[in-house]
Design a protein that fits this description.
This protein has 21 helices and no strands. The protein is mainly alpha-helical and 307 residues long. Helix 9 packs antiparallel against helix 10. The chain starts with a helix and ends with a helix.
Length: 307
């Protein structure tokens, strides 16, 4: 019989942290179960930062260690979600009742008012969250609202690149345009087919700040001299954005630089790589395993070690 969640958490680590920053330090150190217990306790006591942070972790499976993923659904909901209904309620939605920042995060998940929520997030510097929400927003067909987001001063080059196509749609000048805001510099074309190109692209990518967790992972899994090949293989084989899978859940509460330099960032990078296996036919070997055996082995070893 499965042990109750309370017993699992009691055995998982140190006592509950008394404040958000202490819980955050535990989480960054990779003490997941103890940190999540602390976030939950703080959230239940009305700590808005803990509510928002935990609410965002709950929606990002790349931040779940195996012990969280393996929990029965009811126990995982009890750990990551607020009480309410059959499956619990998002802690972000709870925080949104009193906090404008949380209200913007919550609004970005809802079809009505999504554009305004994304604009508010850009004002708060939560660019990565807006980029992650972009595909769903584009599929809604709100071209005028999307153009406002793409042309916002804080949007950055990735979203701004979609602005010309949006203008064409609004002006009915063209019916079929590319509105993908994916960072093309993170996906070198045909690099996987050319080993030398893959290595040179990996060396370029390794200098980008947002790729830092993957550089740390590659240094550990493959060695210093193999970092360019490892990084190149990760991004050349990606079918989704690895950076979006390994990022700070809320930049305003956890600066990307602080996250990237933490022990858990490397573990999250390994989980992001490991998640690629779910995007392929299960009878096939993931491309990363062929392109960089040490990267794939490192991701598997990290997953096994944290179980």
């Amino acid at each position: 019989m499965l042990k109750p969640l309370a017993l699992l958490l009691a055995l998982a680590g140190p006592a509950v942290a008394e404040d958000f920053e202490t819980a955050l330090d535990m989480w960054l150190a990779g003490e997941d179960m103890a940190a999540l217990e602390s976030f939950r306790t703080l959230a239940e006591a009305g700590d808005v930062d803990a509510q928002l942070f935990l609410g965002q972790i709950a929606t990002q499976a790349a931040h779940w260690p195996p012990e969280v993923s393996a929990l029965p659904r009811r126990e995982r909901n009890a750990l990551l979600r607020a009480p309410g209904g059959l499956s619990g309620k998002s802690w972000t939605a709870v925080a949104a009742e009193t906090d404008a920042r949380a209200a913007a995060f919550d609004g970005a998940t809802r079809p009505i008012g999504k554009g305004q929520a994304l604009l508010a997030l850009l004002e708060m510097g939560e660019v990565a969250t807006v980029e992650a929400a972009w595909p769903g927003y584009i599929s809604s067909g709100d071209w005028t609202g999307a153009l406002a987001v793409a042309t916002h001063p804080q949007a950055g080059a990735r979203l701004a690149a979609a602005a010309p196509g949006l203008r064409q749609l609004i002006e009915n000048e063209i019916a079929n345009v590319d509105l993908d805001a994916r960072r093309t510099d993170l996906y070198p074309p045909d690099a996987a087919a050319d080993p030398d190109r893959m290595v040179s692209e990996g060396a370029r990518l390794a200098d980008l700040p947002e790729v830092a967790p993957f550089v740390t992972f590659c240094r550990s899994a493959c060695g210093e001299t193999e970092i360019p090949a490892c990084v190149g293989a990760i991004f050349a084989s990606a079918t989704t954005d690895p950076v979006q899978l390994a990022r700070s859940p809320v930049a305003g509460l956890l600066a990307p630089e602080r996250y990237s330099g933490s022990p858990r960032a490397m573990a999250d990078a390994a989980r992001a790589i490991d998640l690629t296996k779910y995007l392929w036919d299960q009878t096939e070997e993931p491309a990363i395993a062929r392109l960089s055996s040490c990267a794939w082995a490192g991701a598997q070893a990290s997953s096994s070690a944290s179980q």
